[in-house]
Amino acid sequence: MPKKIENVGCPYCGVCCDDLVVTVSDDGRKVLEVENACAIGNEIFQHASSEGRISLPRLRQPDGTYKDISYDEAVDYAARVLIKAKKPLIFGFGSTNCEGMAAAAKVAEKAGAVLDNCASICHGSSFLAIFDNGYPSCTLGETKNRADVIVYWGSNPAHAHPRHMSRYSIFPRGFFTGKGHKGRKIIVIDPRYTDTARVADIYVQVKQGQDYDLFNAFRTVIRGEDIPDEVAGVKKEQILQVAEILKKARFGTIFYGMGLCHSDGRNHNVDIAISMTRDLNDFTKWTIMAMRGHYNIAGPGVVWAWTTGYPYCIDMSKKDRAYMNPGETSSVDLAMRDEVDAFFNVGTDAGAHFPIEAVKHLKKHPWITIDPNICMASEISDLHIPVGIVGVEVPGIVYRMDNVPIQYRQVLNPPDGVISDEELFERIHQRISEIEAEEGITQTSAAAAGTQTSFVGE
Amino acid sequence: MSEIIIKNGFVFDPLQGIRGDKVDIAIKDGKIVETTALTNPKTIDAAGMTVMAGGVDIHSHVVGPKVNTGRLFRPEEKLFQNIKKTGSRMEMGTSIPSVYKTGYDYARMGYSYVNEAAMPPLHSPHVHEEIRDTPIIDISAMPVFGNNWFSLEYLKNNEIENNAAYTAWLLRATRGFGIKIVNPGGSEAWGWGLNCANIHEPVPYFDVTPAQIITGSIETNEYLGLPHSIHIHPNNLGNPGNYVDTLETLKLAEGYTAKNAFGRTQVMHLTHLQFHAYGGEGFNFESKVPEIMDYVNSHDNITVDIGQVTLDETTTMTADGPFEHHLRAVNNLKWANVDVELETAAGVVPFVYSANNKANAVQWAIGLEIGLLAKDPMRTYITTDHPNAGPFTRYPRVIKWLMSQAAREAQMDAFKHRDKVIDVTNIAGIDRELTLYEIAQMTRAGTAKALGIADMYGGLAPGMDADVAIYNLNAESMPSDAEEIEKAFSRCAYMLKDGIVAVKDGEIVAEPAKRTIWVDVKVPENAQVNRDIYEHFLKHYSLKLENYSLFEEHLHNPRVIEVNAAE
Amino acid sequence: MVDKLTLNMITQRSIEEGIAMEKGKTTQEYFEACSIIEMNEEDIRTLGLLPNQLVRVTSECGSVIVKAIKGRQTVYPGLAHIPQGVWSNQIVPPRTQATGEPQYSGFPVTVESARGEKRKSALECVQGAVGLWNGE
């Protein structure tokens, strides 16, 4: 008898739909049907049960081919790479649960690694802006229940977050928003006339790279000052019109994406977006939210903040304290300066998503990929360790784009013998301890006695 | 199994009325036992030292989303940090320490139990993940209720049984401890950028007043017979003249008596009273502590904690969303806000309390006046509303100020506006110095009683958890230099958790397992409440009901307190 | 008509890329979804390109052959888009403005006809860059 599993969370994007219904075969090995998911989510579940999954770690041989090895051997190899490296880089975590991230942080601390996640090349600019300016935000249900004005700025949910608009922003009928789409004004600001722009009431075509200027113009108008006839390619009349809508909203949310983070200005674009949100709260209620990409890419920021106080770019090479300085301790910059001497690609694909120049630099040193699937990173690695797919084969907590924790379920059994990220990192941690004990390596910092607690203000 | 006897110490255990007598404390298998139950114990010689039960913190923000937002958005706090690693994990952060530093620092001060003051129900899995990673200390977390749409509807219509059924359901769903109320009605109003400035101003749309929410919540709490009373952060925090609202809030408890099986006697715990005891207006505000404490002292069904300003740079964080929005306009620093659908709100703003700032110095005086004018230390507790008025790591300094008039005068002399501060406060005229016994009441015995957990925590009677703090203080010959008091409470000589020595000479030597304490209440089946829950999740929440309640696998080392309200 | 045109390049997600990525980066779907450049009709005309013609796109740090299409999500003249993925990252400058984030959007490229050339497969792009491509 096939089994129907309800309320399944989707391991694709930061929308974290948790209403999927997945029908699996009697033996728990195959997905037969997926309901409610978008095309991409559907693909993830279908792919999980397809043939050809890797079920053993693979080690690169001198002739360039891969040879299957046992998990014990792989764990030992990984542990020795970490011990030998002066400054290994552990990067990724776009597709890992929080339990795995916590375990990885433990390994990074023990190994004196730099710990970084995909935000480093994605919403890292948002973190930088948040460090400077804060983050007036809300949960997605607030937007659904209250918002009468929605702004998508430099984000394209029709492509990147397929069910965002129907679940939370444009279409749903909430408590105070019983009219759904009819009761809302949708503003899309983007250099491209995207598929998201097609559903907008107002489309504002900003010149690529000039978002900061346009924000500045809005802030100026909102404060009652005058602006030039055209800013960032946008006519003054349209700026005035949109500013008026922003000020008259009962409750508004600005959703922004890579258009701000990847363009010139980076964090400054996000910073001024936050400032505009602050300004608008002098008139009415406004909130802002980063359109986080992967389903649990908010997770490492959350988990590592409670672990180390920093969300990303965490240099733990001193082992008894952490240090963060994006630009210095960020993965791509470390790679380009040849500052790291081993690379762990975890639940992501740096091979495909880093600029190829950075990939070339990292490839000078041992490269280990930890990921369920074959990807570009796995195909250039020295070692590929497969793990179970979170949200399909491994349950756990993930953080949605609004930092709301969602408890994900297991719907399939992983391929025989395949373990979770969490178990893998726990085993690597254990193995490092064993090797250190065997070889008499002592952790100088841990052995040191006497602690100095410092207080701010002293 | 493991046996320990603590000999020769001056024992202060208000729950048993022990006032510094030399009593042997016997420990077996993690519990306090009669000395006769031991066969071959290890001895800890506490000669010349003070022995108390492990500290019990009634109100502190240590785990959860807003705490973590504070950690995340303040990298500057960690920039010049230089702490040697002595536990199993590194320690980062100052006013908002990492979970590891939180656990270690509480243990170093001799605390074994912390009650997390505000858990947004929607984020309970996050809270429990952080509890899992916080070492040594036992933690309970109170879900916030005062702006919850279910409660607003039920309490508007005075449907106590329905509200009780919902409360029981939410406590179970979140593995929560008790009823926390923050700015009743005001945080819901903040959904529209508004607030409820006093207890009579109705909540927009819901048309229920904060006063109704408060009395309804008291009735709900006593109907259920929970271990703790309602725990309230009242309306109008931080504003001059707010003592009027505070007195009105306190008076709402009149006529109610505690009904429970846990030894609790209050029906309302009003938290961080310091922020709510202001007279005057604008920048000319003044202490109204005598008016408030007269009321508290003469009403047995109320408990309070101080929320002492420690004159540090810190990070404010509260479910009082409109207040944090107000605060960011005061200091123009960065501002984080999270409104939580159907439930609550939260804001975070860094803040610098300075001895050079008159207002901050007045706040300092007001906090200490509360402790010093308290007639019943079993009902007035030491907190800093961590990290709002200061980090919890300053408790030893607060204790010093409360125990030493000289220390207070030294601080006042350091104020830039000393005379102006003295003019509008009463602190200069108070010569009371609290005793070790009173400190034990204010930091463990009283708080454990108010939380309804005094059968397990806060005392040293046989049968209780063997959580013990030993301080390097000779009760018969207290140091003449008050700094020694602060030092002793900062780094205890020993801290035992469940009979295991976790701290020795102020350093972490072991990290025994910690627990999650939660309250499971049985109530009669309630079809209407079940239907309301179903409807709100169908239409208004952004996630499924089935994914909302904490999965059992995400609850770590639970200790459940069972309450039967079904009979 | 000109032989070479300088455009402002952005690289962002597309749903086709998302679906194909989950299927696998070595699939034909991923190849078709990502080895393309979306340009404004006017710029396509200026370069005298035929529909679906291959072009060479060159940035400060490399070049890549992709297929030029008009695309449904139109860009204005002077702007061009290659979906995020293996091909776009052959030319994305790794400079980060000291933020950690490479210049994924808003960098100058030249576009020219590449008639007669071939697009590389994903594996050839990536393995080739690190000396692992064995020509299969």
TrEMBL record, chain A:
<dbReference type="InterPro" id="IPR006656">
    <property type="entry name" value="Mopterin_OxRdtase"/>
</dbReference>
<dbReference type="InterPro" id="IPR016457">
    <property type="entry name" value="Formylmethanofuran_DH_bsu"/>
</dbReference>
<feature type="domain" description="Molybdopterin oxidoreductase">
    <location>
        <begin position="53"/>
        <end position="222"/>
    </location>
</feature>
<keyword id="KW-0560">Oxidoreductase</keyword>
<protein>
    <submittedName>
        <fullName>Formylmethanofuran dehydrogenase subunit B</fullName>
    </submittedName>
</protein>
<dbReference type="Pfam" id="PF00384">
    <property type="entry name" value="Molybdopterin"/>
</dbReference>
<dbReference type="InterPro" id="IPR050123">
    <property type="entry name" value="Prok_molybdopt-oxidoreductase"/>
</dbReference>
TrEMBL record, chain B:
<dbReference type="InterPro" id="IPR012027">
    <property type="entry name" value="Formylmethanofuran_DH_asu"/>
</dbReference>
<dbReference type="InterPro" id="IPR032466">
    <property type="entry name" value="Metal_Hydrolase"/>
</dbReference>
<dbReference type="InterPro" id="IPR011059">
    <property type="entry name" value="Metal-dep_hydrolase_composite"/>
</dbReference>
<dbReference type="InterPro" id="IPR013108">
    <property type="entry name" value="Amidohydro_3"/>
</dbReference>
<dbReference type="InterPro" id="IPR050378">
    <property type="entry name" value="Metallo-dep_Hydrolases_sf"/>
</dbReference>
<dbReference type="Pfam" id="PF07969">
    <property type="entry name" value="Amidohydro_3"/>
</dbReference>
<protein>
    <submittedName>
        <fullName>Formylmethanofuran dehydrogenase subunit A</fullName>
    </submittedName>
</protein>
<feature type="domain" description="Amidohydrolase 3">
    <location>
        <begin position="42"/>
        <end position="499"/>
    </location>
</feature>
